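Slide 14.
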Amino acid sequence: MNILVSACLLGVDCRYCGTGLYNEQVYDLKKKHNLIPICPEQLGGLTTPRNPVEIVNGRAIDKENNDYTTQFQKGAEETLKIAKLLDCTVAILKSNSPSCGYGIIYDGTFSGEKIDGNGMTAEYLSKNGICVLTENEVDSLGKCETI
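Slide 15: predicted structure.
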């Protein structure tokens, strides 16, 4: 099975702060699956490093009130193109991220508080039939394989 994976979870230095967040459990999936690394924010044209962004009233906004919604939407669209091109039906994405978070994201106040919600890419993939999990749900991969 081909699985989209947030590139930062595989150790790629693409996060807003210029680092990766290598996750061994996600990486070990390569023993049985083809992992397709993606960074929706880079695919949307953003640089690394970049200012942290949170979702504020449905918009991707940084602390200085710069609006990156267009870039986040483009990143989501490009990620879906890759998923379709490579027949990916599953995505394992970085939790809490304004792009990749699924189920819980930061609340838009840059205070570290979290709320129920999805990042823009996670939402877009889910609405287009991709089973989305975070790195905290790798053990639940089986629920996606039956889709």
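Speaker note: The beta strands are 2-6, 34-38, 53-56, 59-62, 90-93, 102-106, 114-118, 131-134.
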